[in-house]
Design a protein that fits this description.
alpha+beta; OB fold (Dihydrolipoamide Acetyltransferase, E2P); single chain; about 120 residues; 2 helices; elongated
Length: about 120
């Protein structure tokens, strides 16, 4: 196969990657700004109200509190405190922990919100 055809094929194969919105190095996306907002509150005491739910499949279930924005994951050590509240609306106080979620290809996929050291207020 002539060299020009090989180069043309490589060029065409690279087009979809560029068309998918890859940001220029060093450019901050909207997701980066939202992530930065969360991260500045990491470790602070927060109060959360929402519905207690069990998510996932056995043996990988997790307890979450679903508020208006998203889910707050409850630390494994704290889950027993909420065991009797499944399906109910509760208000808890706890320490916020934020973790960046990164896909296998390196793209950011948001922020995981978690609570530790919870106290049930209601």
């Amino acid at each position: 196969m002539p060299l020009i055809k090989i180069l043309l094929l490589l060029f065409i194969a690279a087009l979809p990657l560029n068309a998918m919105g890859a940001a220029a190095p060093g450019a901050a996306s909207g997701a980066d700004k939202v992530e930065a907002e969360y991260m500045k509150d990491d470790g602070k005491q927060v109060t959360v109200s929402g519905t207690v739910r069990i998510v996932g499949s056995m043996p990988f279930t997790e307890t979450v509190i679903s508020d208006n924005d998203a889910d707050w994951f409850i630390d494994k050590e704290e889950q027993l405190k909420l065991a009797g509240y499944e399906g109910q609306t509760v208000t808890v106080s706890g320490k916020a922990r934020y973790t960046s979620l990164v896909l296998a290809n390196g793209e950011r996929a948001g922020v995981r919100r978690a609570l530790t050291n919870i106290k049930i207020l209601q």
